[in-house]
Amino acid sequence: MFAKRTTAVVLSQHARGAGSAIALRGLQKVYGRNGSAVRALDNIDADFAGGTFTAVMGPSGSGKSTLLQCAAGLDRPSAGTVWLGDTDLTKLSEPALTRLRRTRIGFVFQSFNLVTALNVRDNILLPSRLSHRRPDRRWLAEVVRRVGLTDRLRHRPAQLSGGEQQRVAIARALSVRPDVIFCDEPTGALDTRTAAQVLTLLRHAVDADNQTVVMVTHDPVAASYADRVVFLADGRIVDDLARPGVDAIADRLVHLGDRAAVATTASAVTAW
Amino acid sequence: MVRERPAGVVATFVALWFAVAVVTACGAMLESGIRFHGSVQRYAAAPVLVAETQVSRTTGSGEDRDTESEPLAERGRLDSALVTTIGRLPGVRAAIGDVTVPAGVIGPTGVVGVEVHPWSAAALTPFVLRTGTPPVAGGDIVLDQSLAARIGAAPGTRVTLNLATGPRTFTIGGVAAPPTTEPAEPTVFVADADATALSGHPGTVEVIGVLPDAGVDTNSLAASVRASLPRLPARLEGAYPRVFTGADRGSVESMAVDNAREFVIAVSSVFGGITLLISTLVIAGTVGLSVRQRHRDIALLRAIAATPRQVRRMVVVESFLVSVVAATAAIWAGMTATGWLRDQFVSRAMVPDAFHAHLSWLPPLVAAAAASLFAVLAAWVASLRASRIRPVEALAETSVERRGIGVVRALLGIVALAGGIVLAVTSASASGDSAASISVATVATLVAAIGLLGPLVIRAAAATVGRVLHSFGVTGRLAVANTASSARQLAAVVSSLVLAVALGGSLWFLQTSEQHTAAGQVRAGLTADYVVTPASTGIPAGATDALRQISGVRAVAGVVHSTMFAKHDDITDYSAAGLDVADIGSVLNLGVTSGRLDDLRGDTIAIDALTATSLHLRVGGEFVGWFGDGAPARLRVVATYSRGLGFAALTLPHDLLIAHTTSGVDDSVLIDTGSANAATVAALRSALGPISPGATVVGSTAYRASLDEDLVQNAWTNRVVTAVLIVYVSIAAANTLVTYALGRRRQFAVLRLSGTTRIQVLRMVRLEQVLLLGIAFAAGIAIAAATLLPMVKGTTGSATPYIPLVGWVAVIGGTVALSAVATMVPVRRTLRMAPVEAIGVRE
Lengths: 272, 843
Prior knowledge:
The complex is a heterodimer. Chain A is an alpha/beta fold. Chain A contains 9 helices and 10 strands. Chain A has helices at 64-71, 94-104, 120-130, 137-147, 162-175, 192-209, 220-223, 246-254, 259-271; strands at 20-31, 38-49, 53-57, 79-84, 87-88, 105-108, 180-184, 212-216, 228-233, 236-242. By secondary structure, chain B is of the alpha+beta class. At the A-B interface, helix 2 and helix 3 of A face helix 8 and helix 9 of B.
């Protein structure tokens, strides 16, 4: 059991590897000033390979949402760089960043994803419309079919359930065929069955279309759908598991704070 | 977007609708005024007229050179030698001089006002004799057909005319009528010599009508007539004969035309300008608040990748669309209002019946364009901040305001504050028409300052005065905390309340102060026991002598009213009264402040103290200006007095002033009888009967009451303007209150889920209102005072404004009631939703 857990972080320290959809180098985010400064992200280095499903987990205050926001270009880090393929997000101006986000990044929030004044179809088409691009009708139909909302296109968000709204948000994210889709607790407000539907959708996108998905979650069941689970604590990456099962994830979560104690005991045992 | 937050859009819509409606009405009125030339009936046959209708003055030099003109108050006079000169010009068939002598014909139903003209002027219409013979010198007269029918007269009947010299009976020699429409004023023709004698100014005429030879072009005729007139000096000072052709002849035909045009243009441009100014504040407030409330919607759009520019464009386009819809809806209302205004002006005799509302597409277009421009600008400014919202704020649970207000906003606020104070100080020297505009400009600037610096003021007030509310327990603390944290949104709400209080306070009470002072001056100054008021044509000069003979009468003073012009701000007109100081004695107390009224003989003048200050004149100085008929006046100042508002700004010797009036009669007679005696009054009435039929003798108390009514009547226009503006800003204030209240759904839900009961929430809201209203009243009353006091001092001489109790109740009570209804009703509605549902609503 102890052997599986490592305190070392598995990532490439050298230049980001080819095929890396998102690369973070020395990422830092500090809120507040001087005495009341809070370090949300403390010197993060990470690579997220293309065509993979990664889950980011950690206790509250670990900085996982902040990590996602910086990686997606929604917020600017205090220091460090974010590479989306060949592009350095941190060097872009706000309008340029926005334009880039429109076509290369998809984002799914936990709630309040949709513009309530528009119907489902218009919500899905919104990013394409904003970038003045003609939507690919066939891909659009495919996406709508996949999320299972072909007959709800004319309805408003107020007429949809929470799960249906999340599916619309995913459809919107998929419609532009972005480099990466970021999800912030997408199943947080859903029941288990609907959550499973949403997660299956994401998994399918990764498997069938080589989509890259990075998902923040606190739910071990959700994380079990992922190829790789990254654990954050106090703004640092503390562990990285490949294809873990639900039990392994849950176990790791519970003992996230213990690693220091375990290491001491282990060294005490070996020393003895 | 619109469906989610209707309240803000409705507020903007209403603000724009109102502005467009009022500005359209004012613009249409302005255009109607500019296009108003009256009708030409009496002089229809004469294509070219010569007359003096205005007094002009050229000031400045080089590029600043400007000539201002004012319409004369009495008919200007031309040398009758001019008639002969023009008659000899080539192409002129005849040049005919005309005078107008106002008189009254005593008919079966009472006295009918008529104009007496020389018979030779009949050719200018032309009047054609239908029956009987033309007038004879010293004998028969001719009536116009409809007048004859009205009083049931025919050739051979005897009729009595009320003239300046007294009533005289004539025999009707004939009846005449023009081939087409008759002039509005009934006409009586007398022999030319008689007309000259009756006019009281031999050797002069008032109008020269030029009849051309056959085939002569009007323009070339006008040019040659103009060339024959004395050459105009390079710098105009006074009244000069001018040539009139076409529709312009309407000004010659009726003196009311030019005066009506001036009045309408002045009122509509002032009213329209003020509304535009106020609407900028109102529209900026409603648009700003509406955009701020959609903060999170906009953040979501930014997160879904709308660039800042796209967000700005969306906000601006939406604002533009609302303005277009509002403007379209308001145009009809504005046009209807124009018609209503016109009818009101005519019914109150402010403009002649010939004045028509001219409705073209230009005023609505201008109004709509202006409103759209304001809306778009306000939206653009509001969107600047909105577009800078970080997308990540879309993920935040609540939106928290930034502390401080930014350098640009603070600087603008300070500039506005300084500007407002400067305006307030300079307004002390304002007078008349400009008073209303300056007071509104002062209020607007200071309120803009409050709007810009609002968040700071609110937070400061919450921190200091708000402590008092802490004694009300937890609801008090919550109220103060909420106010401080929503200071930016509340700045818009507070400034709209301040605008309502300040505007109502200053405009309304400026009028009440003026009226009160005027009424007070009349009460103190008019010491006569009885006042004689004429039927229609004034009281002839001989009347005062006759009345003096009656036993029991101690003093009789005839008063003639006119207007004079002085060289101040180019040309300004002042009310003038003429009376005989020998008779004043106990009937009038003007409150002399310097000099002696006894010296008012010959070429002298006495001036109201405030007027004297603005004209820089003192006892011993010289008044240089013009009489109402354009004749130059150089008069020595012998006295100043304090009761000018109630009486007249200028007082002259009776005979001097009356010589420069058209009618040549007194407008009222003041009588002191010592002890009130029914027999004396009866004797007065019977003495007046034959001299001035239809005149009434009124006790001074009753007379004062009727003067009060007159003051109120004259202030009708001011009251309409004030009322409309106050309604507008009140609606705007109510709108912002409702918009703000409706946006607090989630906030209340959070409170209730934390354990606050509905009653406690309501109490908290009421306490917040107390704090807000406190700030609004403090600022509003301060601004109103800063605006009102200098103005009141300038127009009445005393710095204490007169504010009736009704005024206090209306302004303060009205604002409290408005605020209560506009806040509590939407809040109660919001509280009906279960808190668990409401908390899911995006704030």
